[in-house]
Amino acid sequence: MEPEKDSDFDDSNNTHMECYNDSTASESERKSSENKMFADCNCDSISDVTPSDLKFDKETRNFSKKVKKIEHILSKSVINVKKLRALAVSEGGLVNDKIRKTAWPLLLELKPVDDADSPTEEELLRHPEHQQVVLDVNRSLKRFPPGIPLEQRLALQNQLTLLILKVVTAHPRLHYYQGYHDVAVTLLLVTGKEASYQILEKLSTHHLKDCMEPTMEKTYQLLNYIYPLIKYQNVAVYDYLEKSGLGTMFALPWFLTWFGHSLNQYKDVVRLYDYFLASEPLVPLYVCAVIVAFRSKEILDTPCDMANLHCLLSQIPDDLPFEKILIRASKLYKNYPPHIIEKDVQERLRKEEDQRKHEFALRQKRMNQNLPFVWRVISHFDPNRRLPIWAADHTRYIPPQFSGYRYLVATATVAVGIYAFYLKAVEAAPVWDMSYS
Predict the structure, then answer these.
(1) InterPro entries from the xrefs (predicted)?
(2) Domain extents for the chain?
(3) Three-class secondary structure assignment of the chain
């Protein structure tokens, strides 16, 4: 079934995507104001610096009425979470970081808690995953505001490291994964140190809990929701991707980081976070599927092989109309909620498992075909003999037709043994290639 053509996919109606350009100053003026603002900041009190100081968000007149609606909801002693979520999902999201700082915790119905029992910094730094967290955080420079002074960036990175370690220390069953820091840094920059911990803890034990298992097996299984969702939108694209053997690894960083690792525009990242924080946990997979279907022409114009298609899809264009994509994702979720497509997902997983077993059996068969001669040689070898096989009298132990290859036979024996051990290890513990860099 071809995807429906929505009138709301006309670029001329996408005022949200234009509002960030109309009211901005020139590049030189922007950089000058950034440098002045950072020069005035006290690095020692960086945790008190509001995200708007770091992000330079500007409220636009396009959403002035919406801002008033949101502020009215937030001013009440009892927050109408349902209305707040509806506004977060609708066009423009929560508009700016000043609102997000207050609204994001409320979308998850979080309340301030006493932080008295939190572990000390020394305890956090003893966590076994501390070094990996530090390595990932040090690679997250592009996620910080441009022009930020070195001292301030280092302070933010330290806060980010401690934020992550605090969550995984408080919940020992949670396992840090590469990309988790992309989620954490977005929350930290928008909501600050205290609120970001509450949000990250909630997401880690709810929305992202399957990603924080000891292995990525559950995450891999969840990614298989994408293909049925693509099929419901565009059968031609679905068939093309299946024929290529692409798989789902292209979408791994999208799902693990809520697109934080893959998008270049900060405004797009926080807009998606508005949407995801107000939605069900599997909604990011629906957005993944819509993005793929939305790029159908590019996909069908790309050679039908895994390498080319993975290269295409792993790079998300900066000009994607996310407001339109989110509208379509909402419709897709309404028409095909997770319980409706569960059967399709399980069938896909079963076929992939059967294929994996078949390929493994073929590898074993090919290996076994080369073993008879090796085993014949070994059967003639005297276990009490101290000399290695390649020092033996080859006319006695090796058939004449192979007499010139005694060194090759010895090397092959060792190699086959190592290879057999490797195959046993692979069979006992399958390893998924979950890298996304």
Answers:
(1) Rab-GAP-TBC_dom, Rab-GAP_TBC_sf, TBC20/Gyp8-like
(2) 36-212, 370-428
(3) CCCCCCHHHCHHHCHHHHHHHHCCCCHHHHHHHHHHHHHHCCHHHHHHCCHHHHHCCCCCHHHHHHHHHHHHHHCCCCCCHHHHHHHHHCCCCCCCHHHHHHHHHHHCCCCCCCCCCCCCHHHHHCCCCHHHHHHHHHCCHHHCCCCCCHHHHHHHHHHHHHHHHHHHHHCCCCCCCCCHHHHHHHHHHHHCHHHHHHHHHHHHHCCCHHHHCCCCHHHHHHHCCHHHHHHHHCHHHHHHHHHHCCCCHHHHHHHHHCCCCCCCCHHHHHHHHHHHHCCCCCHHHHHHHHHHHHCHHHHHCCCCCHHHHHHHHHCCCCCCCHHHHHHHHHHHHHHCCHHHHHHHHHHHHHHHHHHHHHHHHHHHHHHHHCCHHHHHHHHCCCCCCCCCHHHCCHHHHCCHHHHHHHHHHHHHHHHHHHHHHHHHHHHHCCCCCCCCC
36-212: CATH topology is Helicase, Ruva Protein; domain 3 (1.10.8)
Question: Mind listing the pLDDT tens digit of every residue in the chain (437 residues)?
Answer: 444 444 333 333 333 333 333 333 444 443 444 343 333 333 333 233 333 333 334 544 578 999 999 999 999 999 999 999 999 999 999 999 999 999 999 999 998 776 657 788 888 888 889 999 999 998 877 778 777 888 888 899 999 999 999 999 999 999 999 999 999 999 999 999 999 999 999 999 999 999 999 999 999 999 999 999 999 999 999 999 999 999 999 999 999 999 999 999 999 999 999 999 999 999 999 999 999 999 999 999 999 999 999 999 999 999 999 999 999 999 999 999 999 999 999 999 998 888 888 778 777 777 776 666 656 655 655 555 544 554 544 445 555 555 555 555 566 666 666 666 655 655 554 444 444 44
